[in-house]
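[step 3/7] fold_predict: job queued, chain A
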Amino acid sequence: MVTGIVDHTRDGNGVVHARLLDLVPGRSGKAYADWLKARGEEFTAGIKTAALDPFRGYANAIRDELPEAITVLDAFHVVKLGSAMVDEVRRRVQQETLGHRGRKGDPLYGIRRTLQIGAEHLTDKQAARLDAKLTLGDPDHEVTLAWQCYQKLRNIYHARPERGRELVNEVISSFPSCPIPEVSRLGRTLKQWKAAILAYFDTHGASNGPTEAINGVIETTRRIARGFRNFTNYRLRCLLAAGGHRPYRIKQTNHA
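[step 4/7] structure written:
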């Protein structure tokens, strides 16, 4: 496991030109904090925004080493927590109503992928099928309510900033008291990250998207190499591929 640190600096037009700054062994807050300490105060003082996934270790490192930076919880990972919650409810209700895991022909199993789609993207046919299957397989409407909560969570990032902030407060005030245990647990998690979720609207939508793009380059590099024997080679190859460096090329001149 390694921790990657990515530069999200925007240019004058607000476009992020992501580049890999470094890879360090271990996926922990300490690994990240030690790297920041080694860069020195001049470097850390220049960091104004830090985007991360919902891992408390990284959040603690930012708190301790980047006290002036705004911590932003990545929107994709927030929505992913919601989609995972819906799937947990679906699988539990499936077990309670039919006594087994999902099988072909089971109502809830048949809509497992449809439940992950945003309501605004559903076709009329998909919406009708979703309603029919929920009627058959969701007697206590738990999956239906979980799906509605998921849609509300998604809407946070599709609304104007003022409305988005209102939705954050609505979600955090209502989810923890929901009688559905999976929704309640998600609500408690989101409440712990409230400030970092709201920071999305104060940073012009800062996210971990550039980091995911760099991760794609790293995965491609590893796949082409068919693995690495040691971390040093892995780190150097990834920095060459995604660190903003370009190989030097000798200009050739053809002579007649």
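[step 5/7] annotate
The beta strands are 2-7, 19-25, 49-52, 70-73.
The first helix runs from residue 29 to 39.
exit 0
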